[in-house]
Design brief:
Number of strands: 12
Structural class: alpha/beta
Largest sheet: 10 strands, mixed
CATH architecture of the largest domain: Alpha-Beta Complex
Strand content: 15-25%
Helix content: 40-55%
Number of domains: 2
CATH class of the largest domain: Alpha Beta
Number of helices: 8
CATH superfamily of the largest domain: Spore Coat Polysaccharide Biosynthesis Protein SpsA, Chain A
Mean pLDDT: 94
Shape: globular
Length: 275
Amino acid sequence: MKSNITALIIAKNEEKMLQACLETLSFCQKIIILDNGSTDKTDIIAENYNCQVVSFAHESFAKLREKAHSLVETDWLFYVDADERVTPALAKEILLHIEQDDCQAMTIRRDNVCYGQRFAFGNWQNDLVTRIFKKESLLSWQGDIHESPVFKGINVELRHRLIHLTHRNTQDNLRKSADWTIKEATALAAASVKNVTFMVILRKGIMEFYRRAIKHQGYKDGMAGIVEALVQAINRMVVYIQVWELQQKPSIKARYEKEEQEIKNLWKREGKIKL
């Protein structure tokens, strides 16, 4: 049975993960792919599954989600990421709530698979995402990076979980970090945080590792849990390294421009070389 619900996937270069995601969304009446500037075969894969593909590139995740929302014609909508998988039990539970019409939003707990292992600690076990809405009840999204929905009505937490196949290897993890760490750094710099020093960078990394590996017992997930906590600590340090970059006066870009100009001036003054 297909219900009156549209799946929304915001994707950028997801050719490796998209097909398997789409195969878990057969219960949806329609699937819309919002292509955020892909350069791979994301759009081709989507079209092969009869998805509606709309190109819309934006730096703000909130704006991307709002654009996707505006494309929906069904009564319900479901935001899914390309690296997430819906189980049959979760699909049936979603359809049951839609049939009963007993809520306006649904929150799902995610099972996070990092480095090939389902994490039960490190604060990954507390990962709740509100992704399913009646279209008329979803008002907006707030936040350019860690965006959150603004909606009205009753929100229910579903019993069955969404599977999140994230951090599949360190290379993919760091590549994703390169996209979001600069956005967070820019927001922090704009908020006029105190000047970043070496000790600030070091402290941020140590505290992030402590929080994930010790406070939230990430070490109980074994070596994978410790490695993930360490990668998250590195990501936190990278954010503050980039805040430091943005705080430099004159800017680092201006310094390079000055170096370039000085070299050009040298060639103007001393560039006549006899061979």
